[in-house]
Structure formats: C-alpha cells, structure tokens
TrEMBL record, chains A, B:
It comes from the Bacteria. Keywords: DNA-binding, Transcription, Transcription regulation. GO terms for molecular function: DNA binding. It comes from Propioniciclava soli. This is LacI family DNA-binding transcriptional regulator. Residues 19-50 form the HTH cro/C1-type domain. Residues 18-72 form the HTH lacI-type domain.
Length: 344, 344
DNA sequence: CTGTTAGCGCGTTCAA
DNA sequence: TTGAACGCGCTAACAG
C-alpha cells in the first residue's frame, strides 16, 4: 500500500491535461477559488485572482468541457438546424446568409454557433435527437418543410426559434413578409407593361413558398390579370432550369415571370437564354432574396430584398432571450423591398 | 435524517431526462448491466439484454453525452477545420466538396463530422484551441496558409490530417499533384496554339498556390516559352476580377491564361467579357478544380479535375486510421486530369 | 472573501 | 454473467 490514490497530491502528470486541482495546488488555493476565477472572477480578491491566473497560464490550463457540462447542464453551443442536405445548403447563398446572421447575433457572447444539416438518407427527425441529446442548448431552425418538424420540436424542452412561421402555436419565429415581397415583385412586372404573367413557385410545403405564390396571385387579381401559368419549383437552381424548359415547351407566350428565388431565377435565365429568349426584352424576370446570384447573372436580376441576414439575426436574438429565461417572444416580421436592376 | 440522498430509490423525476440508474431500476438490474447493453451488448445474456432494451425504449433513455465523455475522454466528433471565414467557405464550392468528402469517409461510422471555420477577426490559433479543448477527437485541416498552423498543430496530441502538404515533417496529409495539374493546363494552352501565356496564381502562402504556379512556369520552360505575366491572386472570385482588370490595363496582349482556380476564372471571364474580350477566341482560359462553376459559366470552362472530394475522402480515411491507433500513414497524392470544355 | 463537501451520469475495474 | 464501488473534472451550496 505504498501507492496513494491516483494523482493524489501529485504534480500534474506530464502529457495529461492539467486540471482545476493542478491549478489550485500551484496557486496554493482551493479548487473552488480557481473555479470562481475562471468563471468571471467575481467574489475573489484581486491578488488571489492574479495568482490563480498566473498558475492557469503557466500550466496552460483549459477547462474540461465535459465535466463542466455535466454539472451545469449547458453546453455553450447553439445550432442552426437545416433539414436539407449539405449539397443544397452549400449551393444556395441563402443559407450562408442565414448562418452568418445567427452567428452575428451571438458575436461577443460566449456561445458557439454550429451548423447542422441532414444527411442525405436521414429523416429530419435526427435533428430533433441532436437537439435533445444535450449537446446543444438551443437552436434556430431554417427551411423546415411541412409541420412535422415544428410539431416534434414543440414538445422539446430546449428553446427553439424558427425562421418562417412554423404553423404551430406557441413557437417563436422570425420571418419576412413573403406575401408582400411577391406583391412588390409582381407589381413591378405589371408596371413595366407586362400582362402575360407567370410564376415559378418555391417548395409549396414551405410557408415561404406558399406565401410567395399567394402574393403573386393576389397582385394579379388586384390588377385584373389572370395568371398564364403557375409552375412548381423547389427553390433549387435545377428546378429553375426545369421550369424554364416547361415554359418553353408549353409555348405559354409569357412576357413577365416572377421566380420565387434568385437561385431558381438564375437557372431559369440560363435556360431561357440558351433557347434564344431575350431577358428582359422577351420575358422580364423578377427574382427573390437579393442573394449574390442576383448580381452575378447577366442581365443583373431585379429582385426582392429578402433580408435573410437580418431575419436570421432576429431569430438569433430571440433565441438568446429564450436562453436567458424569457418567455415566448412575439414573432418578428420584417418588410421586404424591391431592388431594381436589369432583368425587369 | 429522514431524507435519503437525492433521487435515491425514487422513480425518475418527471421532466428530468432518464438516467442509466432509472433504466436499471425499471429493468431490475444494475447500472453496469445497462451500460453493457447500451454499449454493444456483449457479455450480457440475451434475455436480460431484451429486458433492458425494453426499459430503454419505455423511458426514452438517451445516454448523457457529457458524462460519457468525461469518463471515456472521447467526444465522438471530428472536425473539418478551415482557417477561412464563413463568407469565403460558403462562396467557394471547393469547400463544399471537401467537407462532403470527409463526411462520406465517415459514413456508416458513429462519428459526427462538423465544420469549423474562423471568425472574421480571429487568429487561426482559435482552431487549435478548439482541437485541444476536448470537444473533438481529431480533425482534417483544409486550406492552411503558411506553416504556423501546421507547426502549432504538430504539437497537439489529437490526430490531425492535412489537405495539402503542411510542410512540417511527421504530419499526415492527402493532396493533389498540383504541379502536374498546372502542367496539364498549360500544355493545353500551348497545344491549342497559344504562345503569349500568363497565369493568375492562387494564394502564394499556400502550397497549392505555389505548386500551381510552379507547374505553369515549368510547362512554359519546357516549351521554350517565356511567360508574359504572373499575376497574383488569392483563390477568390474578387481576386480573379481584379487580376483581369490588371491584365486589361497593362495591355499584355495575352492569348492564353491559366487561372489557378475555377472560382477565380469565373471572375476573370466575367471581367474580360465585360471589356469585350472574347473567350476563347481572343484569350483562351484554363481553370483549376472542376467545381460546379466550371460548368455554370459561358463558355464552359476547360479545367483541371482537382478531385477535391476524393482528396478529402482520403484525408478522412487517414484520420479514421489515426483515431483507431495506427501510426503515421504515408501521404496520399492523387493525380489530376484535364477536362476539355469550351474556354480553351 | 475562501475552503469543504456533495454530487452531476457514466464506464470500468474487481469480486462474486 | 452480473453487481458494487470508484472516480473522471467540475460547479454550487454551505460554512467559516
């Protein structure tokens, strides 16, 4: 029995990460004091704080996350949950703006913001598991389809904020007034003299898709115009190309087209131009989002500023409130506006 | 002393997550047995295993990650570390391919793969802290500039695999033969009859940038051609635009241009065409990467297939080996090939 | 202001 | 094949 309990009263083992205990020993104080210094330093005399900090530096001490998490029951991590595959997320600038918006609303705060997407074959439910696994303290959910995910998330104890009305009462969300945006876009087409109008919709299992379509039909109705066609899309560039081909083959004789996202509009334009259709001379096009795609394509896209960054920032702010104990914040709806460029 | 220790012998508290203890109680076994069942189930009789699994299901038990991590000292998470800001990461398809490649090499394995980027103002060192914080078990590092980061990472106990030669001995990496790729690109320009050649380089503090430039100069030398210009770029689209403007204003009279990445090439082409230069008639262009940009631009870009996905996959595979205890695996260098399209 | 103490939930010896 | 006991590193009462 010459061996005491492991590391009991010993110097820090070389190679092993130093612990609070090691720091305490070096500084000649108790673990609790070191803990106080490490977590803010209040309630500790300046001198001891300095002694402790010196020991921390000397040892290169880093708090053990697991141990801290075990007792505080918080991970210091929040997630942006996107029920789409990485392929889609990385190819649509909308998600970059959204992620960046949430990040910016947490800048200067301790929390780390991670991006979690669905794996190709997986059900969106895995994101719920991730949220309840204890690895994250809360989440912002973007691009949810249908209301299964919101319903599943409604029963979870971690705070969640949606981007776009989740359609389930009692949940926090930030959104853009998508209907209004589509009205603006459609009115622009009408103002520029177009009468044979059509729209390429976004995913119709998403509120954003529904509202943008609704805005289009409403603006048409208000102007006494009957839409020539309503072509289903899914917010991807490929679906835009497909929509354009269907427009061409149906020989719709359209002269104005509202496309529910810039990415789709890029696909539409590429395909139309490939077929010899001139934009805007033959068909005027208005997009939606004002993403970088709008500036990249020729002609530059007239579009609706979707404030993706700001909406996400609002969502992040609401999540912060929820995390700090606030009750359900009221939804925040931002107003879109029109960006005039060359395509309409 | 009527109160026993908290929750001792009690039913699981409503609202609190069920613990191993709760499951053990419900199944009528000890915690250790439940633990065995949850982690593989060997060394447990089939009947008790079934009883335990039933209890797990009934309670909806999820293992507490923090507690498990505290004792196993592993997090089950690996990271793709990118010392670039999210703006850059999300705007270059190269990173999507890289991330996806690493993910795919871990598919079917327990590990979760996360993407970690630098925040705008932060030094790349923060990524080292992240790696040593215990939150991840290992990492693949992509797009490192210079050798400060590799050197810092060399002293870390967690396994790390680089994409691109880190320039520090003793580190694992996967790479593309960038020099060879640049040679192929340049030879293509020469074969198509171009003699007044120039290159827009990538970041010259990255080995990929250096090697691509070296391949260009080598191919020129071998053909007895003196390069007209070597224009510095940084792999971004904006730097491509800038390079194009400098080409135009210097009136270099170039007829063949090797641009060290597709994204830059897109910027170069947009700017040249804007100035009335025809591609490939006036200036032939070869890009590098074969990213989706190469197919999106007009004319479609002749480029070098950089196999970003496969290189990343190799790096992921090497990381898996390292994590399972293997010694330093030999570097893997993939061979590029040329993709002929319309720009050269 | 500081130290002592008691767990957080789990994996893992060591005995039985 | 199973159970009892220990400790991973840390925070949060509670005493002093």
């Amino acid at each position: 029995m010459t061996e005491p309990s492991p590391r009991g009263g010993q110097a820090p083992t070389a190679g092993a990460a130093p612990t609070l205990q090691d720091v305490a020993r070096l500084a000649g104080v108790s673990r609790a004091t070191v803990s106080r210094v490490v977590n803010g330093g209040s309630l500790v005399s300046p001198e001891t704080a300095e002694t402790v900090n010196a020991a921390v530096r000397e040892l290169g001490y880093q708090p053990n996350h697991a141990a801290r998490m075990l007792v505080t029951r918080r991970s210091g991590v929040v997630a942006v949950l996107v029920p789409e595959t990485d392929l889609r997320v990385f190819s649509d600038p909308y998600f970059a703006a959204t992620y960046h918006g949430v990040i910016s609303s947490f800048s200067g705060h301790e929390a780390q913001v991670v991006l979690a997407m669905s794996k190709p074959g997986e059900p969106a439910e895995r994101l719920v598991e991730y949220l309840t696994s204890g690895r994250i303290d809360g989440a912002v959910v973007a691009s949810h389809h249908g209301s299964d995910l919101p319903r599943a998330l409604a029963g979870v104890s971690q705070p969640v904020v949606f981007i776009g009305d989740p359609g389930v009462p009692g949940l926090a969300y930030a959104d853009l007034d998508n209907t209004r945006g589509a009205v603006l876009a459609t009115q622009r087409l009408i103002q520029s003299g177009r009468r044979r109008l059509a729209t390429v919709t976004g995913s119709l299992d998403m509120v954003a898709g529904q509202h943008r379509r609704a805005g289009f039909t409403r603006a048409c109705a208000e102007a006494g115009i009957t839409p020539v066609a309503i072509i289903p899309g899914s917010f991807t560039e490929a679906s835009g190309r497909e929509a354009a081909r269907s427009v061409l083959s149906a020989r719709h004789d359209i002269d104005g087209l509202f496309v529910a996202s810039d990415l789709m509009a890029a696909g539409v334009m590429a395909e139309l131009q490939h077929a010899g259709v001139r934009v805007p001379e033959d068909i005027a096009i208005v997009g939606f989002d004002d993403s970088e795609m709008a500036r990249r394509v020729r002609p530059a896209l007239t579009t609706v500023r979707g404030h993706a960054h700001e909406v996400a920032q609002e969502a992040g702010r609401m999540l912060r409130e929820l995390l700090s104990g606030s009750t359900l914040p009221a939804p925040v709806i931002l107003a879109p506006d029109l960006v005039l460029r060359d395509s309409a």
